[in-house]
């Protein structure tokens, strides 16, 4: 997939994308995978394992040579969540 993204000339990718951000908690996707919570996604009637999270996305974006655009749901958690994510990603 990395080669395809490079070939397409993608410069930015948002994470998480789509409606998934409505219930996603970025904190669930950090730390050891074995300790990450598994959550029911009520919007999609599926289970989110958090096996691929913030750290994995940032590493993938760097390997792909793209600019990550991190997304948070301001409507449910507010600007404090966005600031915490910004601080985490820049640490």
From TrEMBL:
An annotated GO BP: polysaccharide catabolic process
Classification via Pfam families: ASD1_dom
N-terminal signal peptide: none
Domain of life: Bacteria
Domain Alpha-L-arabinofuranosidase 1 catalytic: residue ranges: 5-81
Name assigned to this protein: CAZy families GH51 protein
